[in-house]
Design brief:
CATH class: Alpha Beta
InterPro entries: AB_hydrolase_1, AB_hydrolase_fold, Carboxylesterase_BioH
Helix content: 25-40%
Protein name: Alpha/beta hydrolase
Keywords: Hydrolase
Organism: Deinococcus arenicola
Pfam families: Abhydrolase_6 (PF12697)
Length: about 240
């Protein structure tokens, strides 16, 4: 069975997958600046920096190639990982991914995101603002805790640097199965952005659209993620 790795998005950690684990077997990682890797965050951190750190982790484990499921910011990181290391990635599952092109975000939105670091009230507002389904209290508390302990440098680097990067020029030769799971009701990364900046760039990609979830699909509708990963796992 091809091993599976789960990659979190901006501001969160491997705990974003807590409602998925138990139903699927996977390696979960923390990107530099977040979760247990908060110490590794640095000023001006780029998508390339995160992709290289993920590459190093997977090479150290040495069980690839991997099926890679990645949420939000992690989706952009996973795309660059796969483009630069095709021998490490056999399949991609992009869940509400940040696009490979600059993420549409107005200056006010970037400023609010930047200012939320280390601010419990702002983090509460941020996560309530990007969700549609209620998240269990323990899981919501973990989201806030992850936001409080994240590296300030890595946190601010995403709205200022990583989300603005255009890595699309490196993806032209990407040739592997890609599935994109997204919500029609996502208030953070719109379905129009997913269609125009992700799906339109990968004609081989399979689109799986759901309703009734916000941006945090692994916590809001974990059954959609589990169903997708289990179905692909069982595919001959």
């Amino acid at each position: 069975m091809t091993p599976l790795v789960l990659v979190h998005g901006f501001g969160t950690s491997r705990h974003i997958w807590r409602r998925v684990l138990g139903e699927v077997e996977a390696l979960v990682v923390d990107l530099p600046g977040f979760g247990d890797a908060a110490y590794a965050g640095r000023a001006g951190q780029t998508v390339e920096d995160m992709a290289q750190a993920l590459t190093d982790m997977l090479r150290e484990v040495g069980e690839g190639p991997y099926r890679v499921a990645a949420h939000s910011m992690g989706g952009k990181v996973a795309l660059l990982l796969a483009a630069r290391n095709p021998e490490l990635v056999s399949e991609l599952f992009l869940i509400a991914p940040s696009p490979p092109t600059p993420e549409p975000m107005d200056p006010e939105g970037r400023a609010k995101l930047r200012a939320a670091h280390g601010n419990r009230d702002a983090l509460n507002a941020q996560y309530h603002g990007v969700t549609v389904q209620p998240i269990p209290e323990q899981d919501f508390a973990q989201l806030v805790q992850d936001g409080l302990r994240a590296s300030h440098d890595a946190w601010t680097a995403w709205p200022d640097v990583g989300s603005r990067e255009d890595i699309s020029g490196e993806l032209d030769g990407l040739n592997l199965p890609i599935t994109v799971l997204f919500s029609e009701d996502d208030p953070a990364i719109s379905p129009d952005t997913i269609r125009s900046e992700v799906l339109a760039r990968f004609p081989q990609a399979k689109a799986v659209a759901i309703h009734g979830s916000g941006h945090l699909i692994p916590l809001e509708q974990p059954e959609a993620v589990i169903s997708l990963l289990q179905a692909e796992e069982e595919r001959p």
